[in-house]
């Protein structure tokens, strides 16, 4: 190893770091001025953030991977936004849940995340404007929809202003690094279900499986008693200083959860958007089929169709539909008009950028 050559490269890095630092602060000054121009208006602009991140990925010359530079710029924008005004984000707690991981992935580390005891409380704190935005789970690739989130979306005045897609990795956690003496495994019911096959194969049949309110709560319990283990993610492991007895124990390797970001604003088009709606059909044969016609007629693609019993009547259903495009697009507007003429009820839950990270 040539010490001289090493020094040359380190000197070059020092000089580049000074330039990067100067440019970062110049960028921050522009953001601060933008904040002054916005005045008391909404500072967080999801469509602009999506455009910035997409552009960074597009123009990235490498060798850093596109995903990595996008993550770096996510943090840069998070700090710039905090100079305009720091954001407070309600998430389904406690600290260390996948929902908190999703909130940080979407808003970056400069946002202030606040743990809530239930999905209802997350909605309530943002509806009453005590906190700025909400992050709630809406569907998992193996377990399906999160019913409480869908139910609350029907009546909330909040709008969907973003989505977060998170790969879910579950680990078996314990205070000590071996399997001996584990009597009980705690986790959220959905996580126990997502690791069912692995547990059958790898743990003795007499180890009790106990569901608790969250994975983070499971990790907390495991940190208090060495005869307990927990199934939870990385952030819960770190938070409660637990050892990973086994990593990535989810049965489905592509296990993914989708989260929604909710706020009070209507988001402008970003160029690559989704629109979520909730619809109820009159209770007669062929009604659901007829609901889908306006989308086909206007060339609007559906990315999700989920039915859920309406809490208003015994046999009535509501349908949660995700469409490609923004509700301001002409084709989508026509499809929505056609739908309004056929459905008993239609509500646009929001148009928002397709997840970039
Ligand atoms: O463009 C804006 O409106 C800004 O406030 C700047 C900026 C950024 O850092 O790029 C910061 C926050 C917004 O959510 C979007 C973008």
Automatic annotation (TrEMBL):
Ranges for domain ACT: 276-353
GO cellular component, one term: cytoplasm
Pfam families: ACT (PF01842), CM_2 (PF01817), PDT (PF00800)
Keywords noted in UniProt: Amino-acid biosynthesis, Aromatic amino acid biosynthesis, Cytoplasm, Isomerase, Lyase, Multifunctional enzyme, Phenylalanine biosynthesis
EC number of this enzyme: 4.2.1.51, 5.4.99.5
Domain Prephenate dehydratase: 88-264
Superkingdom, taxonomy of origin: Bacteria
Domain spans labelled Chorismate mutase: 1-88
Compartment(s) where it occurs, according to its Swiss-Prot or TrEMBL record: Cytoplasm
Positions marked as site (Essential for prephenate dehydratase activity): 257
NCBIfam families: CM_P2, PRK11898.1
Protein name in the entry: Bifunctional chorismate mutase/prephenate dehydratase
Organism in which the protein naturally occurs: Crenobacter luteus
Upper taxonomic lineage: Bacteria, Pseudomonadati, Pseudomonadota, Betaproteobacteria, Neisseriales
């Amino acid at each position: 190893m040539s010490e001289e050559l090493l020094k040359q490269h380190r000197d070059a890095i020092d000089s580049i770091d000074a330039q990067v630092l100067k440019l970062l602060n110049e960028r921050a000054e522009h953001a601060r001025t933008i904040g002054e121009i916005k005045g008391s208006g909404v500072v967080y602009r999801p469509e602009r953030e999506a455009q910035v991140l997409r552009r960074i990925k597009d123009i990235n010359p490498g060798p850093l991977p596109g995903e990595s530079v996008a993550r770096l710029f996510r943090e840069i924008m998070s700090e710039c936004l905090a100079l305009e005004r720091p954001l407070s984000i309600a998430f389904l707690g406690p600290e260390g849940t996948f929902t908190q991981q999703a909130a940080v992935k979407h808003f970056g580390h400069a946002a202030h995340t606040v743990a809530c005891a239930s999905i209802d409380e997350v909605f309530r704190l943002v509806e009453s404007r005590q906190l700025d935005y909400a992050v709630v789970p809406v569907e998992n690739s193996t377990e399906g929809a999160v019913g409480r989130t869908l139910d609350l979306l029907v009546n909330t005045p909040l709008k969907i202003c973003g989505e977060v897609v998170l790969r879910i990795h579950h680990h078996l956690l314990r205070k000590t690094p071996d399997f001996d003496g584990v009597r009980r495994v705690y986790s959220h019911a959905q996580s126990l279900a997502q690791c069912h096959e692995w547990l059958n194969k790898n743990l003795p049949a007499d180890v009790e499986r106990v569901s608790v309110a969250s994975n983070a709560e499971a990790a907390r319990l495991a940190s208090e008693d060495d005869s307990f283990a927990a199934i939870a993610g990385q952030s819960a492991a770190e938070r409660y200083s637990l050892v990973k007895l086994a990593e990535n124990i989810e049965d489905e390797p592509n296990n993914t959860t989708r989260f929604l970001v909710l706020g009070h604003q209507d988001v402008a088009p970003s160029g690559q958007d989704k629109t979520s709606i909730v619809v109820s059909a009159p209770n007669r044969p062929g009604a659901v089929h007829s609901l889908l016609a306006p989308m086909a007629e206007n060339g609007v693609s559906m990315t999700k169709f989920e039915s859920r019993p309406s809490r208003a009547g015994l046999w009535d259903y509501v349908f949660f539909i995700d469409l490609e495009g923004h509700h301001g697009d002409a084709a989508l507007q026509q499809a929505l008009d056609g739908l309004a003429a056929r459905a008993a009820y239609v509500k646009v839950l929001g148009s928002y950028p397709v997840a970039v990270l």
